[in-house]
Design goal:
This protein is an alpha/beta fold. The chain folds into two domains: 175 residues, Rossmann fold (3-Layer(aba) Sandwich), CATH 3.40.50; 206 residues, Rossmann fold (3-Layer(aba) Sandwich). Helix content is 32%, strand content 24%. The protein contains 13 helices and 19 strands. Bound molecules: cytidine-5'-monophosphate.
């Protein structure tokens, strides 16, 4: 779980986006975090502490003078063993208070009293004019100078009926940002290109040849690399997956399109990871019109032509990025993986244990490099992706 063992203090200030804080609480807990909710008086007008207590599993604090805290120092006690404070929603007024060190209620006081080094993440939520007002711009700049992470805001329709920047980002996006904030920035300043998913080779306008790759491992790697601080470009065959936040995705269908997209973006990349299950052949005599059954019932005669090997081509570039290949092997992985690494001429080749991993959430990997091999035991693909990114970062530096 991405937030296993993390203690998050979730603060709510006043705004209609408080209703999204309920879902955020559930999402944080589902990701493994424990959540202590603190609300301003204004927030309690939008959602009740009862709701937030039921969802977080802990009594909610709203009052600086709460006699439930033995020493009556809630602002100290609540902040001494937490991993981060997340304010969602963060109103324009609350941004002002944080920027200027105002502490006139429990939530603002505990933010000021948090130990140095405790991250403060805020999800601004306000009307578009309020967000664009120079006063709010000044406060946002001050907060950024102080190292406060601004998560958003998003842009779009607002509850007030107006449109533009200012709406709180969605709970799923906030969850991703919180998870990302805990990841070591092992690839800061690096550019990483990767391929993922299957390819689709047309037989005619409605039929084609593809494979069972879901794209999950490649997308998990794109996410892990982005969260490790890399600028990520993902060239993806057809998948049903959501593109990870802040990842540039170039969707393609065929191996030729994937090849063209990779070659167009490979210059200046530090790392290239070929995760895609690329079709080895395409149909040479694909029909421009839908093939019809003929009266004799003859099957069409398909002819195949080899697709370019994208990984091998990138690995042969004079100024090549650090290249990582993937191999799905059902047997003799140790010999086959080492041999494939040499054949593909890459410093690192990653073997999946068996083709059964296609479409699954779990995988197990074996990393082959010039020193031998290293096994990463079975785990979910996100965990494995983080480990693999750490291994790549170690070899890069
Ligand atoms: O030779 P094989 O297809 O098993 O090699 C798999 C590796 O090569 C994967 O990293 C895959 O993404 C890459 N590959 C490629 N272009 C192809 C075929 C495979 O980049 N046409």
């Amino acid at each position: 779980m991405d937030l296993a063992g993390k203690k998050i203090l979730l603060g709510l200030s006043g705004g209609i986006a408080c209703y999204k804080a309920a879902e955020l609480t559930r999402a944080l807990i589902k990701a493994g975090a424990s959540v202590q909710v603190v609300m301003t008086d204004a927030a309690t007008h939008f959602i009740t502490p009862v709701t937030m207590q039921a969802l977080s599993g802990h009594p909610v604090h709203t009052d600086q003078w709460d006699a439930r805290i033995a020493n009556n120092m809630a602002h100290i006690d609540l902040t001494r063993s937490i991993d981060a404070i997340v304010i969602a929603p963060c109103s324009a007024d609350f941004m002002f208070k944080l920027a200027h060190g105002v502490c006139d209620d429990l939530l603002s006081t505990l933010c000021l009293a948090r130990p140095a080094g405790t991250p403060l993440l805020i999800a601004p939520a306000m009307n578009v004019e309020m967000w664009q007002n120079p006063a709010t711009r000044r406060n946002a700049a001050l907060l950024q100078q102080d190292g406060v992470a601004l998560l958003g805001p998003g842009s779009g329709d607002q509850a007030c009926g107006e449109t533009g920047p200012g709406r709180m980002r969605e709970p799923a996006q906030l969850l991703e940002a919180v998870i990302a904030s805990f990841q070591p920035k092992l690839l800061a300043g690096k550019r990483l290109l990767l391929t993922a998913g299957p390819t689709f080779e047309a037989i005619d306008p409605v039929r084609g040849i593809t494979n069972l790759s879901s794209g999950k491992m490649g997308y998990a790697l794109a996410r892990a690399a982005q969260q490790a601080g890399a600028e990520v470009t993902l060239v993806s065959g057809p998948t049903a997956l959501a593109v990870p936040d802040h990842v540039r995705c170039i969707p393609v269908q065929t191996a030729l399109q994937m090849h063209a997209a990779v070659m167009a973006h490979v210059a200046g990349q530090d790392v290239f990871i070929a995760v895609a299950a690329v079709a080895d052949w395409r149909v040479a005599n694909a029909s421009a019109t839908k093939l019809k059954k003929n009266d004799a019932g003859d099957a069409p005669q398909l002819q195949f032509i080899a697709n370019p090997d994208i990984l091998a081509e990138v690995a042969a570039l004079p100024q090549r990025p650090y290249c990582v290949g993937f191999a799905a092997e059902s047997d003799h992985l140790e010999q086959n993986g080492a041999a494939k690494r040499l054949k593909k001429n890459v410093p690192l080749l990653v073997g999946n244990i068996g083709p059964d991993t296609f479409g699954q959430d779990n995988n197990a990997l074996v990393l082959f490099d010039e020193h031998g091999y290293l096994s990463l035991p079975p785990a979910d693909k996100h965990t494995l992706a983080r480990k693999l990114i750490a291994e790549i970062a170690r070899r890069l530096h």
